[in-house]
Amino acid sequence: MTITRISSxxxxxxxxxxxxxxxNFVDRLTQFNFNTDYVIKVPATSITSIPISIITPDxxxxxxxxxxxxxxxxDLVERINLKELTLTVxxxxxxxxxxxxxxxxxxxxxGLPEVRVAYKDQVPANVGSTLSxxxxxxxxxxxxxxxxxxxxxxxxxxxxxxxxxxxxxxxxFFVDAxxxxx
Length: 182
Description:
By secondary structure, the chain is α+β, with helices and mostly antiparallel strands. It has 4 helices and 9 strands. Strands 1, 2, 3, 4, 5, 6, 7, 8 and 9 form a 9-stranded antiparallel β-sheet that branches.
């Protein structure tokens, strides 16, 4: 055997040993995060302590791009979960989310039930312009296989909102999928 062939065999053996030592090694190759951003418009209102529902227009699922970038596709996805969701005020300038008492975000898609994906039951009074929501960990694979989905955001305020707010919702999704060709 040549030195090159021996080196190749040794590298393969080390790879196989590593795979046996670390059961999660292959999983790490097929798991990734992808990010989404969506702007939510919170209307001005003088009503407080009563939940207001904001229903978004249909949102086109762009997960196919993330799947392709990670060498997989929707039918090979084993699970998708929302990992984190952060709300950040875009306008008004110097605006804060202190008017919020609570927030609930639900996802819906054609033929699938509405599911609660994120929430904050008690928004701190000193919240500032950014708020990290608690996530439910609900399975979202079937929602991302759809062409589009919608969000229903329910906000309860504890003070009047004197002007419309534009709030960016930044989501990070965890995806566990099979790699193409496996």
